[in-house]
């Protein structure tokens, strides 16, 4: 299977998925050779990217067909990822959700059930994970962040499922981007960046080819890089022209991108990524949504080595959900001397103290 531009289709090409119009009517079926008339019908629908079956005689832009064994293995990986999310006793990916954690876990479970019922959606996720492991991990993280915001907004179960699907599949169009561009270490050229930006349109086109996928999910892929001041792409939408789900996913997408390690960039800490978001409030991103998101985040993750304003050093030991920027710190150094008996300081009760420096997260501390 691969993703190609519709403009490159030639008679005899075989689609992997049918093509539907805006009313859900099948226009071109899958698994039969395309004719000139069929190709013209696809062009009339303004579809720019399509799924096709790979032919061994052709150079592949994407990936080859997945074997049954590999598909089973990848499906198990996806299932395990959801099971881990649901089974965690403390919340993951830096979210602090004491009030909403049970509902969020139920939403994640509901979303997983939805995936296993919608084979086309699961198939797309399998394709994403097979194409690029980071792309899947990023999509899962964006879904968790988005569902955290959606839960705080008290969206309905149906809305949360749609938001979760939209977030999981928001970057599916990146399968149309060659890996040498997608994972380039250096700065992108103007042409390469223009090509990258096409992933929003590619994702929209690929998702609208699947009749079982709600049109709003395709809109999430199309709009997640739109910005409320009109500076985004692909359409330069402003304010209320951008769907709420796309605004949420845009925030989650940006935050996870800057706080994740990539081959070309070191990850920012939670606090740094959030600061970037806050700086763009009501310019690029909705300020209300950023405020909700910041309330959910653990600003100083557990295990972070910190220095306090009075010179003491310690490790973030636990969180205060009422004030995520005021954690409990285990003091391990005082006046330059390592302590044999560390003690806790709760910054929520010590308002004169501030964290002034922080660096690596400590995986394990022995005393």
Topology:
Blueprint: E1 2-5, E2 19-20, E3 26-28, H1 36-44, E4 49-52, H2 68-87, H3 101-117, H4 119-131, H5 133-152, H6 157-168, H7 179-182, H8 190-197, H9 199-208, H10 215-223, H11 244-258, H12 270-279, H13 287-296, E5 304-308, E6 313-318, E7 328-334, E8 337-346, E9 355-361
Antiparallel strand pairs: 1-4, 2-3, 5-6, 5-9, 6-7, 7-8
Helix pairs in contact: 2-3, 2-4, 3-5, 3-6, 4-5, 5-6, 5-11, 5-13, 6-10, 9-10, 10-11, 11-12
Give the fraction of residues assigned to helices: 40-55%
Largest sheet: 5 strands, antiparallel
Rg value: 23 Å
Strand % is 5-15%
Domain HD-GYP: 113-309
Protein name: HD-GYP domain-containing protein
């Amino acid at each position: 299977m691969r993703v190609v531009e519709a403009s490159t289709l030639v008679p005899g090409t075989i689609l992997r998925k049918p093509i539907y119009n805006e009313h859900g009517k099948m226009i071109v079926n899958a698994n039969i050779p395309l004719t000139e008339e069929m190709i013209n019908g696809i062009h009339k629908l303004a579809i720019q990217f399509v799924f096709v079956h790979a032919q061994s005689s052709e150079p592949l832009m994407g990936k080859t067909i997945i074997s049954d064994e590999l598909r089973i293995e990848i499906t198990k990986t996806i299932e395990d990822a959801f099971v881990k999310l649901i089974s965690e006793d403390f919340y993951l990916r830096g979210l602090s959700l004491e009030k909403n954690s049970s509902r969020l876990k139920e939403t994640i479970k509901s979303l997983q059930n939805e995936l296993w019922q919608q084979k086309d959606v699961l198939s797309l996720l399998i394709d994403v994970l097979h194409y690029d492991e980071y792309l899947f991990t990023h999509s899962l993280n964006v879904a968790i962040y988005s569902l955290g915001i959606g839960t705080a907004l008290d969206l309905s179960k149906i809305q949360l499922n749609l938001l979760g699907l939209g977030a999981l599949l928001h970057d599916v169009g990146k399968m149309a981007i060659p890996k040498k561009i997608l994972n380039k270490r250096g700065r992108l050229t103007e042409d390469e960046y223009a090509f990258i930006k096409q992933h929003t349109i590619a994702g929209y086109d690929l998702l609208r080819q699947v009749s079982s996928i709600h049109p709003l999910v395709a809109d999430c892929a199309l709009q997640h890089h739109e910005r409320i001041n009109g500076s985004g792409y692909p359409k330069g939408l402003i304010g209320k022209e951008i769907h709420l789900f796309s605004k949420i996913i845009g925030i989650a997408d940006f935050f996870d991108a800057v706080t994740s390690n990539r081959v070309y960039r070191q990850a920012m800490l939670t606090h740094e990524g959030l600061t970037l978001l806050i700086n763009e409030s009501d310019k690029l991103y909705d300020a209300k949504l950023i405020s909700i998101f910041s309330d959910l985040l653990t600003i100083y993750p557990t295990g972070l080595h910190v220095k306090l304003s009075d010179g003491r050093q310690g490790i973030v030991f636990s969180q205060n959900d009422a004030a995520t920027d005021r954690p409990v710190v285990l003091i391990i150094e005082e006046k330059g001397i390592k302590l044999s008996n560390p003690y806790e300081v709760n910054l929520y009760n010590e308002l004169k103290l501030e964290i002034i420096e922080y660096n690596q997260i400590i995986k394990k501390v022995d005393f």
